[in-house]
Amino acid sequence: MSEQSGGPASPDAAPSSNPGHENKRDRRNRNNNRNNNPRITTFIGDPSIEFLKGYVYDVGPKSKDQFSTTTERIGQYIQGNGSFKKGGGDFINAFNPNDLRFEDIPDPTVPEDTKDIVKIEIWKLQQKEAHARRNDRQDVINAAYSIVRKQCSEALWNRVESHKRYAIVQANMDVIELLKLIRNALYTGATTRNSCVSTQDALIKLFTFKQSKPMQNADYLKKFKELTELVAFHGTIIGIEDARVNEILKTVANNTNMPTPEETQIAKDKVQEQFFAILLIRQADKVRFGQLLADLENSFIMGEDRYPKTITKAYEILVNYKKFVPQTHDPNEHGVSYYTPTDTESTQHNTNSDDSNNNTRDNRTQSGRGNQGSGRGGPGSGRGGRGGARGAGRGTGNGGRGARDGETHLLQQDDGANNAPNANNDNSNAPHTP
């Protein structure tokens, strides 16, 4: 409460000497907060379809990744929607972002025997069913066109409308071509650019695209196919060489000198398919698949062509490839075999070893005693012989130290050695203590 209202002033509020300056500072702080926290309006698409909420086509840093997920989501919605039961079954396949197209609904073949009334009636029924399927599909296509449009933000739709092909797409209500326009707008930006520049950008994106270390193989394949479709959208044909086409024609054409247009197209498709298959391998993560590429190159040098012929096979190789990891060998575990005795054998071995050690010790003691005895002589005699490791000792005419095991015996021998007439006396004349 303020003092004018009769209440005490707040103890924490210090009086301002410049109220005007204080108000400007408050306004400046409010403006800064408004700039730091701008109001964000998120485009969510058609709010009436909960299943598609947030699955949109929009410009932004992740817009390219959203194309695949949004397209697949719309296909799932159309197929699962009961109102599209008649013609919605084909959409989950047609809305595959890696292969945007509908399967053709062909007319049945006319029977050869036109006089067979039964076959003619069956043919008429099949033809009627095919016609009904095409009509049902077109009805769903018209509805799908509206759904895709509502999932596009205004910023993206402006790009789509500016494309030179948009008028034809709009007139035919061609939802597949509309999706291709959307993809083109997301990957190349403005659709009013020079066609050569757009085509070159599509090619650059394809050939500079690499699989990153954290990218899964499935995501890598999806993104790779999107880029190949983008190149095809601009009408650019790559990977088809006449020499390779002629090689394929030798296996698919009945007459290699005069192949049919269908056979020639089959050969071209095979050549281009292998071109993209090898490109998929080459642009895979070098950490995981660098050795794979080296193995393929070495096999080709040795006369064995193991390069994949299709994208499907190339992807299968990437998924199942096992990188060779050299193992380090422990010299204590490999190359030398060690015998490990059993408990009984170990006990017996220790017992025998103890007996052997005792016998050796006794022999050493006895040997030491004998050598010490032979080394005892009168003054001026030299060093006695060495015995075992424990029984060895030195002896002179004046007496020396004996081995530890024969210490008492040697002391008694020293007394006898001082009384010996000369150094050549035999040990039998020396006193002996049994």
Descriptive account of the structure:
The protein has 434 residues and is mostly helical. Helix content is 55%, strand content 0%. The chain has helices spanning 19-36, 63-80, 91-94, 117-150, 154-161, 166-172, 175-188, 195-208, 217-233, 242-252, 261-282, 286-301, 311-320, 343-375, 407-418. Helix 5 packs across helix 7 (175-188). The protein is globular. It starts with 18 loop residues before the first helix and ends in a 16-residue tail after the last helix.
What gross morphology would you assign?
A: globular
Largest sheet: none
Cα separation of the termini: 124 Å
Low-confidence stretches: 1-16, 34-41, 342-349, 359-382, 384-434
Structural class: mainly alpha
Share of helix, binned: 40-55%
What Rg, in angstroms, do the CA atoms define? Answer: 49 Å
Number of E strands: 0
Strand proportion: under 5%
Q: Return the average pLDDT rounded to an integer.
A: 74
> How many helical elements?
15
Order of helices and strands: HHHHHHHHHHHHHHH
